[in-house]
Amino acid sequence: MKIRNSFAVTILGNASAVPTANRNLTSQLVQYGTNRFLVDCGEGTQLQMIKYRVKQTNLNHIFISHLHGDHFYGLFGLISTFHLFGRTKPLAIFAPQALKDLLDHVLQVSNTTLRFELNFHNLEDFGDKPVYENDHFKITCFPVVHRIPTWGFKFEEKHGIRKINKAFLAEYAPDIATIKAIKAGDGYKAPNGKVYSHNEITEAPLNPRSYVYCADTAYDTSLAPYLFGADLVYHEATFDDSMEALAIEKFHATARHAALQARQAQVKKLLLGHFSARHTSLEGLLEEARSVFENTLISEEGIRYPVE
Ligand SMILES: [Zn+2]
User: How far does the centroid of ligand 1 lie from the alpha carbon of residue 200, in Å?
Assistant: First the structure.
């Protein structure tokens, strides 16, 4: 069996605009292997992290989709806690540029000199280029349709290279230079003269997986290419269909809008979130979405959803 890196998203908050007794403001943790990324940081996020045992360890990247308060007011408290706990590792923040001025101002008026480096990245600077990447994984941002500039984020595995067969490695124990050559596409000639083709000694890579966070957005078919074929998509469903006019006016989506988007983009699974406080029960939203796109779930705080 092939072992894959774990890839999952844990919901820390799925309320829109204002919190309720059982729904916190937007935040979620995306985890890929040992890498962990916080997406949005509404007020109360650090409490949710404690409640759901999300450790601060290895949390070095925070992405803020836009500057409405329900998506970033928790950042100041979280940074303060990092500082008080003696963090020394740099922290990278990816957000609209105006947040940099706010952060600088807050630190200045509270006379705080952070013990760690705060590296700010303006989302407008990236275009199609990844905002983050390593050998196996990359994150890109894309504009969604809201009242102020807002970005969604796509988390995806890179196309894998063929893996060298374990039985082959055990039998011939090739040196590093040979392994590199095989990874680059070479075959292998064994000491006994036997010749192996590249495909004989390697295995096909698994299909790369992807997760898309759509942030706050109106229903707009222009987003479909960014979502296309994703294994899991988190899409806002602030309102139900009876409030479609309000959704359009506020640049938000209904559950049906989210489902139409998922169907059009041929995604595998849809996770609804960003629920208006007026929806005490979410059953209606789920039913509405499932009538258009069957593989829909209502996101629940503290639940870890695998990307598979
Ligand atoms: Zn919001």
Answer: 52
Give residue 219's pLDDT band: very low, low, confident or very high (50, 70, 90): very high
Instruction: Please give the pLDDT value at position 160.
Output: 67
- Mean per-residue pLDDT, 104-122: 95
* H/E element, 129: none
Q: How confident is the model at residue 58 (pLDDT cuts 50, 70, 90)?
A: confident
Q: What is the set of domains in the chain, with CATH numbers? A: 7-160+205-306 (3.60.15.10), 163-203 (no CATH)
Q: Ligand 1 mean position to 81 CA, how many Å? A: 24
- How much distance in Å is there from the Cα of 153 to the middle of ligand 1? 15
Q: Are 38 and 65 in contact (CB under 8 A)?
A: no
17 Cα: distance to centroid of ligand 1 (angstroms): 5
Q: Spot the catalytic one: 40, 70, 216, 231.
A: 70
Please compute the mean of the pLDDT values over residues 254-270 and round it to a whole number: 96
Q: Where are the alpha helices (DSSP H) in 74-194?
A: 74-84, 98-109, 166-172, 176-183
Q: Is 40 a catalytic residue?
A: no
